[in-house]
Write a structure and sequence with these properties.
The protein has twelve helices and 22 strands. The protein is α+β, with helices and mostly antiparallel strands and about 400 residues long. The protein folds into three domains: about 170 residues, Periplasmic binding protein-like II (D-Maltodextrin-Binding Protein, domain 2), CATH 3.40.190; about 140 residues, D-Maltodextrin-Binding Protein, domain 2, CATH 3.40.190; about 80 residues, Immunoglobulin-like. Strands 1, 4, 5, 7, 8, 9, 10, 12 and 13 form a nine-stranded mixed β-sheet that branches. It has a four-stranded antiparallel β-sheet with strand order 19-18-21-22, with no helix packed on it. Helix 2 crosses helix 12. The protein starts with a helix and ends with a strand.
C-alpha cells in the first residue's frame, strides 16, 4: 500500500513539474507523431530517446528511478511511439543506421573498426556528434574487500598479469574477469578508453548484445554468483536502469585512481574513464528532414536540458580560456607546438594536476603539473585541463604539429 501511495505521489509531483518545465522549453516546429523520425540507440540511451519524444510531442511521462521500483524506465501517460523508437543496442543501432533502417541513433561510442568497414562497403558516411558524457564503471561483488583500483591495475588484470586479489590489496583469491562480446557498447569503451585497443585474452563473456533489455542484468548476476569476479558497465546504465537495492546490497562500484564515478567527477572529467555519448546520422540525410532538425535540436539549450533531465551530463565543447590562480595568470606556450609546452605564471605547482584530453574527451595523458609537459606523441588537437583539488581551474586547447 505504501509503495502504491508513493508512486501516486511521484506521478502527481512529476505532472506539476512537467507543466512548469514546459514554459521555457523550445521544441521543434511542426513535429508530430506522424513525422517523428525513426530513432534507435543503445540500452543506456533508451530513456533519453523516450524522454526526448515525450517532451517534443507534449506527452506526459514519468521516469521511474531510485524509488524502489523493480522495473525502472520511462513510461508514457499518452501515445507511445513503439514503431518509431527502437532499442536495438549499440551495434544493432549502428548497423540499422548504415542500412537506412533508422534515421538517427544515440549510442555511447563511435563506430568500431569493422562497423566502419561495413559502412565503407555500403558506400555510407556517418556523422557522429558528442552530446553527453558517460563513464565506464568497474563493479565487483559487495563481499570483496577491494574498494579501489588504478587504471594500470585494471589493465594488468585484463591482460592476465594480475591474477589474484591479494596483489591489489584483497583476499588471496583468484580474480575472475568478465568481458562483453565484441561490438557491444561497454566492450568497445573498455577496449578504447582503458586498454588502448590492446588485445585482451579471451575472458568469459558475461552477456550478449543481441539479448533483450532485461538480460543485460546478467552481468550483475554473474558477479552475484562469483564473489571474486570483476566486470565493467556504463555508469548511466548502472545508476538508472538497475534496481537500486540490487547494486547497493550485492554489487559495489570501485573507485578508479581513487576517484568514484558520479556526476561531478564525470562533468569535471576527473574520473579517469569518461566516454562521450553520440548522436549519429548518415551524411546524406536531408537537412530539411525532421530527423536532421532533431539532430540539430539536441545541441541547443532545450536539447541539453532534456539530456540533463534524463540523468546524463551534457557534452560541452572545451573553451580556450585562461583563468587565474591567486591573481597569477597562467601562460602556455608555444601554441601550436611541436611537442614541448611551457607553463608559466604559477608560483606553486605542488598541489596542481593536469589531464590531457583528445578532441572527443578521451583521457590520453595525466600527471602532476610541472613547468614543462611533453606532448610530442599527441599529434593534433589536445585539451589541457589544470586542476586543483579535483576542481578544474584552467583549460586550454593545444595544437601539436
Amino acid at each position: 500500500m505504501k509503495n502504491r501511495i508513493l508512486l501516486i505521489l511521484v506521478c502527481l509531483i512529476f505532472s506539476v513539474n512537467f507543466l512548469f518545465s514546459q514554459q521555457d522549453f523550445q521544441g521543434i516546429d511542426g513535429i508530430t507523431t506522424d513525422n517523428y523520425p525513426r530513432v534507435d540507440g543503445s540500452t543506456s540511451t533508451d530513456p533519453l530517446n523516450l524522454i526526448i519524444s515525450a517532451k517534443l510531442l507534449d506527452v506526459e511521462y514519468v521516469f521511474y528511478k531510485e524509488i524502489g521500483v523493480s522495473i525502472p524506465g520511462v513510461y508514457y501517460f499518452g501515445s507511445i511511439l513503439w514503431d518509431k523508437i527502437q532499442c536495438s543496442q549499440t551495434h544493432g543501432a549502428i548497423i540499422n543506421l548504415i542500412d537506412n533502417q533508422t534515421d538517427l541513433i544515440t549510442v555511447a561510442r563511435k563506430m568500431s573498426a569493422d562497423e566502419k568497414q561495413y559502412a565503407n562497403n555500403a558506400g555510407v558516411s556517418i556523422i557522429e556528434t558528442p552530446i553527453a558524457l558517460d563513464a565506464l564503471d568497474f563493479i565487483i561483488n559487495a563481499q570483496n574487500s577491494v574498494n579501489s583500483l588504478s587504471v594500470e591495475q585494471i589493465q594488468n588484470i585484463y591482460l592476465g598479469n594480475i591474477t589474484n586479489w591479494s596483489e591489489v590489496g584483497g583476499a588471496n583469491e583468484a580474480i575472475i574477469p568478465f568481458i562483453r562480446n565484441a561490438n557491444s557498447g561497454s566492450q568497445e569503451m573498455m577496449n578504447e578508453f582503458v586498454m588502448n585497443n590492446t588485445d585482451m585474452p579471451d575472458w568469459t563473456v558475461s552477456y550478449a548484445d543481441e539479448l533483450t533489455l532485461w538480460s543485460m542484468l546478467i552481468v550483475y548476476t554473474e558477479l552475484m554468483m562469483n564473489t571474486y569476479g570483476i566486470c565493467f558497465t556504463p555508469h548511466y546504465y548502472k545508476e538508472y536502469l538497475v534496481s537500486g537495492s540490487f547494486t547497493t546490497d550485492i554489487i559495489k562500484t570501485l573507485a578508479v585512481n581513487g576517484i568514484m564515478p558520479d556526476k561531478t567527477s564525470i562533468k569535471n572529467k576527473t574520473y579517469p574513464v569518461i566516454a562521450p555519448v553520440y548522436v549519429s546520422i548518415r551524411s546524406d540525410l536531408d537537412h530539411n528532414s525532421m530527423a536532421y532538425k532533431l539532430y540539430e535540436w539536441l545541441q541547443t539549450p532545450s536539447g541539453k536540458s532534456v539530456i540533463v533531465e534524463s540523468g546524463y551530463v551534457p557534452y560541452e565543447n572545451s573553451e580556450n580560456s585562461i583563468k587565474q590562480i591567486s591573481n597569477q595568470h597562467i601562460q602556455i606556450s608555444p601554441n601550436p607546438t611541436e611537442g614541448i609546452i611551457k607553463i608559466r605564471g604559477i608560483e606553486d605547482y605542488s598541489n596542481l594536476d593536469y589531464v590531457i584530453y583528445n578532441s572527443v574527451g578521451q583521457v590520453t595523458q595525466r600527471g602532476k603539473l610541472k613547468q614543462t609537459i611533453d606532448l610530442s606523441s599527441r599529434k593534433g588537437l589536445n585539451i589541457l585541463t589544470i586542476m586543483q583539488n579535483q576542481q578544474v581551474i584552467a583549460r586550454e586547447k593545444i595544437m601539436v604539429k
